[in-house]
Amino acid sequence: MAVIEPVPVVQPPPHEGILRRQALRESAARTYARSLPIVPVRARGLTIEGADGRRYLDCLSGAGTLALGHNHPVVLEAIRKVLDSGAPLHVLDLATPVKDAFTTELFATLPREFADNARIQFCGPAGTDAVEAAFTLVRTATGRTGLLTFTGAYHGMTTGALEASGGARDVRVTRLPFPQDYRCPFGTGGEQGAALAARWTKHLLDDRKGGLPTPAGMIVEPVQGEGGVLPAPDSWLRDMRRITADRSIPLIADEVQTGVGRTGAFWAVEHSGIVPDVMVLSKAIGGSLPLAVIVYRAELDLWQPGAHAGTFRGNQLAMAAGAATLAYVRENRLADRAAVLGERMLARLRELRTHHPGIGDVRGRGLMIGVELVDPERAPLPAEADDHAPAPPPDPALARAVQQECLRRGLIVELGGRHGAVVRLLPPLTLTDEQASAVVDRLADALAAAERSPHRRTTTGPIS
Length: 464
Fold this sequence. Notes:
- This protein is of the alpha/beta class and 464 residues long.
- The chain has two domains: 26-58 and 336-452, Aspartate Aminotransferase, domain 1, CATH 3.90.1150; 74-331, Type I PLP-dependent aspartate aminotransferase-like (Major domain) (Aspartate Aminotransferase, domain 2, 3-Layer(aba) Sandwich), CATH 3.40.640.
- The chain contains 14 helices and 17 strands.
- The chain has helices at residues 14-25, 32-35, 61-64, 73-85, 97-109, 112-115, 127-142, 159-164, 190-206, 234-246, 316-331, 334-352, 396-408, 433-452; strands at residues 40-44, 47-50, 55-58, 118-122, 147-150, 173-176, 217-220, 223-224, 230-231, 251-254, 278-281, 293-297, 359-365, 368-373, 411-412, 414-416, 422-425.
- Helix 4 packs antiparallel against helix 11, helix 5 (97-109) packs parallel to helix 11 and helix 13 (396-408) crosses helix 14 (433-452).
- The N and C termini lie far apart (76 Å).
């Protein structure tokens, strides 16, 4: 009698079960887990290892949080030192040696003219909490309510931050044109476009019949991140500083993503030389752990105790990790390194445009880089392009295909921009020359593969 062998049951790899349970249990609002279906288990520097054994070059860096990459030794040492000391980990806003060391190091990195007359408020753990604190601060100090923001802005996910971001509608917020070259709202680009944007802002504020009361403040990103990696022209930022100062409107610089060397200066406002009234800081200042603060001119410090607080504003581990990160970036001049390496990567990526008509624009500052992808069938060749001709439509489907092809090649990138058609690179400041070359090579391969493969184009409607 023949023996029937049992059919072996093939168990799916453990990481697939984790992803399946995540999909069943977690919110439909989750984002990165949808486009990046990996299960990280180990990480160091630029590299992440997934539960499937694959290794990835991480150019997402916690959305710019990891200035030194994953698990940098100085960060781990700082955290262990606090843990081994027996110090309290949760102290609300009480003074501690760890907090004093963080504040001292932070003030040492700030522009001297600003730091010499500044106050700091520790907020809740996220950048959006610091944005809300900045709004409360300037509204309290001025007695006014309105805000000036910019098209394409992103400042967070809480109510006030969303009102100030590009996707919300609120009567207290007036949105101004943000200058850019590739899709200039005035059709000119360059210095002329920046000058027109400044002129429009000045006219709007000075028009007594325009219906705009003097606002409580203006908030601006020195480089729009989620908006598609759009560096603000230095001359335009200086104009914004003059316009707001002349009218006693506090200027808030949102440096949540641009700070701590990311753009090639320790703080992105240093490129233009402006001194804002308020700086909003988070992400990298916590050394990979949650921490958010606002630093502002002492004259604005008119709110009462408890006017803005947060239970987790005293995160001792984040302060220790943040102080170590700030000191390491400062002592090793990593901002200068980001400027040099960023220019090299931008140059190589711009060279790719001659071979890939799907690349509409390459832009960025330091190691904050964006590649805007457009419909290749409607993109003029570089030699045929007119400086003032309308840019071809963005191609978010191509961008998604590139992101997936990057993942297949072991490269993690993020998408951004108004239409989700900008491939964003935010590598750690510790990036080596060899790693930078590998990132560009893998992105180039992914772009070629995505252009060859059929992908559904969903570009419709006017382009702003």
